[in-house]
Amino acid sequence: MSSRIAITGMGIVSAIGNNVQENLLALAQQKSGIGQLELLETIHQNFPCGEIKLTNNHLVEALKVKQDETFTRAALLGVKAAEEALQQAQITSKNKIAFVNGTSVGGMDYTEKLYKDFSKNPHTTKYIEAQHPGFTSDTIAHHLTITGLVTTVSTACSSGANALITGAKLLKAAKAETVLAGGTDCLSKFTLNGFNSLKILSEKLCQPFDEHRSGLNLGEGAAYLVLETEEKAKAQNKIILGYLDGYGNANDAYHQTASSATGEGSFLAMQAALNSAKINAREVSYINAHGTATENNDLSEGVAIQRIFEENLPKISSTKAFTGHTLAAAGAIEAVFSLLAIQEQKIWPNLNFKVQMPELNFSPETEIVPQKIEKVLSNSFGFGGNCSSLLFSAL
Amino acid sequence: MIKACYINGISSLSPQSTVVEENFDFQQIQTFEKPVLQVAFKGYKKLIKPAAMRRMSKSVKMGVFTAASALIDADVKEPTSILTGTGMGCKQDSDIFLENLLLQYEELLSPSKFVQSTHNTVGGQVALYLKSKAYNFTYVQGSASFESALLDAQLSILTEEKKHQILVGGIDEISENTIGLLQLDQQIKSETSLENLKLLDYKSKGSIIGEGAHFFVISEEKKHNSYAKLLDLHLENSLATEEVFPKTKAFLEENKLAIANIDLVILGNNGDVDFDAYFQPLQQEFKEIPQVYYKHLVGEFYTASAFGMQLGVKILKSQHLPEAYRLNTVQPQKTIKKVLLYNQFRGKNHSWILLEHV
User: Fold this and answer.
1) Which residue of A has its CA nearest to B142?
2) Which of A19, B6, B22, B350 is deepest in the core (most CB within 10 A)?
3) What is the pLDDT along chain B (358 residues), one digit of tens a residue?
4) Do A264 and B133 count as a contact with CB atoms less than 8 A apart?
5) What is the Cα–Cα distance from A216 to A383, expressed in whole angstroms?
């Protein structure tokens, strides 16, 4: 009964590009998208962010959004990435397609902008309901004319990865024929101030896995994959970009926002991903790490990676220094980067890294490494102890 | 479907709970004269230590309490996964952080409310309470939030070769700060005095709002005291009113059932004159069989349908149709074996659940 999950389409918008091709180019040129904020109105201009330099008005025009639709920025970014993925997978009929979205910010960008105006301006009341994440998914689904199964995973920074897990399970249980899954989140004052109040934002460009790392840079973006069973994809002669062969989720059960020193949750998630793909740790060619560049995450994740792989560490890098931490979109964006690593047979560099952490016995890759890549493990961890790991295969 | 899903434990906190008793009672009905129905329960100490409770918001308290008591009810120590659904997450803490941010112009903010504001806070706090490292997912999909979590429970049982004890629930809380906003966009009725038991008589826009937490323990293993069997569920994001009945029929047919096989229908009518038309086709087509509803007793909230499911489970177990919940006057002619639930909110996030007597 259990068929492999094939990926037949992908779409992305991030600070390093408005589609897959632009993202690939920036990765290959080692060009980061993190810099000074230009669009988000905040007093915290000192924090560099991975902001997408497209205004909401520009996106509304480019995507041909109708006047009566209630679009949040996350929905606009989501539609942009989703349309690219559906097009590549040649999905024309939306009848049997399920949409599994991941978002944590939802429509908070509009809520924070309009909160004081709701009672004064009747034109804004339609955005009251838009605060909850499901509303953003509804809007994307409506624009894409997906009317059937639509759901949203919201597990903070692992949402996008978890949406892909739910999507795979829907196919395995034959509850859907085609699944569009991934995540979207936009920059907002709410999250910028939230992470700032936790003192985990860096005023410098982030340095994942560096001894002198000083915190994360926030980012925004969206990415989606089209998932289909291998049989169906092959029967329709579709190009298969890779397979989602394994996944694991576990809870660190240590602290609401901090990770345990032993990385128990990430250890269990990676182990479950390897087990469900029925592979040995040695078979992994590359780990696209969560690597946010916070003191806590990189230590906890690094320790967990060492526990799993022991002497057989694969090549490791975090791509957060390209895009910033895009929260609920991160797992999906990094799924696209993992598939691009498979497509190009290259490991993407961990930008800004200089000094190895004394607690770890590995350094991430700092240059593009061409090598045979068959299996990629992609990690995503979030608040609430939520840890996820996805295993992508080339063949 | 080869593998079945049995409901082996339940727990409820709703506006029908009393100050001391969490689970609702068919005879003892709580009434309200305002459109905001809150959970009055105070007995959290039964399961949560006071020191831990001080840091918990209402939704965390309600969620942790019902999760723990559903496990006790099912006699399960360690769940194999924790699945939660919530429409708004920890709304109170999110609102407070947002208001402070606006009021203080982004300066000097404490992180305590922010760290509780992610939608998976209850799922994470349940894991911390149980020291559970198990699979832990949170779904946030409007009125299909709980059903999304329930779907994951079903998918887990269908796709994984292992034994499951799945803790699955729905949680939502009222935030005092934003009641005004819900009045503004007409989610809450504007009548100044309002009796909840007459909800369907007002024929006006909006509904009454409520809150609550409901957990279930679901497993492929049937126990001597199992409550019911979850046969199947189905979600549709958006529909026209005339599509409701054909979709209902198709869902029943997928499960090899006809209209005549259903013994009870549980509907999510909330008295909103603009949207109760979605329930009309089923009220009409199932007019020969008993129908019940529940939002007049617990209010509308994104996970109110989890109360509806708990109502269905209790009716199946007790074979008793509580008077206060009845939508029509048809008496059951035989054992209530199959129950169909249908819900939607503002024309979006439609869900169907099929339960069976065990």
Assistant:
1) A134
2) B350
3) 468 999 999 999 999 999 999 999 999 999 999 999 999 999 999 999 999 998 899 999 999 999 999 999 999 999 999 999 999 999 999 999 999 999 999 999 999 999 999 999 999 999 999 999 999 999 999 999 999 999 999 999 999 999 999 999 999 999 998 899 999 989 999 998 899 999 999 999 999 999 999 999 999 999 999 999 999 999 999 999 999 999 999 999 999 999 999 999 999 999 999 999 999 999 999 999 999 999 999 999 999 999 999 999 999 999 999 999 999 999 998 999 999 999 999 999 999 999 999 9
4) yes
5) 14
Non-local CB neighbours of B192 within 8 Å, separated by 6+ positions: none
Residues in a beta bridge with A244: A5, A392
* CB within 8 Å: A252 and B151: no
**CA-CA distance, A58 to A182, in Å (whole number)?**
23
Buried/exposed A303-322: b ≥16 CB within 10 Å, e otherwise: bbbbebbeeebbbbbbbbbb
Q: Cα separation of A206 and A202, whole Å?
A: 7
Asked if B134 and A384 come within 8 Å (Cβ–Cβ), the reply is: no
Q: Nearest to residue A106, comparing CAs of A122, A123, A121, A127?
A: A127
Rounded CA separation A152/A162 (Å): 10
Residues of A with Cβ-Cβ distance to B135 under 8 angstroms: 249-251
Distance from CA of B115 to the nearest CA of A (A): 7
- Chain A residue numbers touching B105 (CB-CB < 8 A): 43
Contact A99, A167 (CB under 8 A): no
Q: Tell me the pTM.
A: 0.97
Report d(CA A277, CA B298) in Å as an integer: 45
Cα R_g (chain A), whole angstroms: 19
